[in-house]
Design a protein that fits this description.
six-stranded mixed β-sheet
Length: about 180
């Protein structure tokens, strides 16, 4: 399958430390033809240290990921999903950056660029007079959220994107291109 204008790959990553160059979890929610079509979640062994702050925030510790796949093995599972649509994240520069650093650090060749949409940036244009933190947006739209759990965060972001689409917003004008560093 190739990238499709009617398919969005909404993802969220959690990180083990302030370096933000490894994942400890990833959630992926696929939107197809205006509906949530599929979901994926995995813990990830970041093969690095955990900061106390990140453990408290996400609930993910070294012990929690001891049997989880490291990023290269995980990538063989998620690459087909990541290729089927426009990437979407809430504060996309963060999530795209973590993805890019993981690919680079593990020497995994993917594409040089990827089309993406940020629901924070889009929301700031569509709803300029409010905060665009994920929990605030979920409260505004009545979306259930277990904040800082990658599966819940990706699902919530997908629900927010669907609300934007259902409101009649032309989201195509908010799609950007992310350049992965070689």
């Amino acid at each position: 399958m190739t990238e499709n204008e009617n398919r969005f790959v909404v993802f969220d990553v959690e990180t083990p430390n302030r370096a933000n160059d490894r994942m400890s979890a990833i959630g992926i929610t696929i939107i197809e033809n205006g509906k949530i079509a599929d979901e994926y979640y995995s813990l990830v062994d970041p093969e690095t240290y955990f900061d106390y702050f990140n453990v408290k925030l996400t609930g993910i510790s070294e012990n929690a990921v001891k049997d989880a796949p490291a990023f290269p093995k995980l990538w063989t599972e998620i690459e087909p999903l990541m290729n089927i649509g426009i990437l979407v994240a809430h504060n996309a520069v963060f999530d795209m950056g973590v993805l890019g650093r993981c690919l680079k650090d593990y020497g995994i060749a993917w594409k040089q660029t990827a089309r993406y949409l940020c629901t924070v940036q889009t929301g700031r244009k569509l709803l300029p007079d409010m905060s665009h933190k994920l929990d605030v947006m979920c409260g505004y739209y009545g979306i259930e959220l277990d904040h800082h759990h990658a599966a819940s965060d990706s699902r919530a972001c997908a629900e927010i994107l669907l609300r934007y689409i259902q409101s009649g917003a032309d989201i195509s004008s908010y799609i950007r291109t992310y350049k992965f560093k070689p």
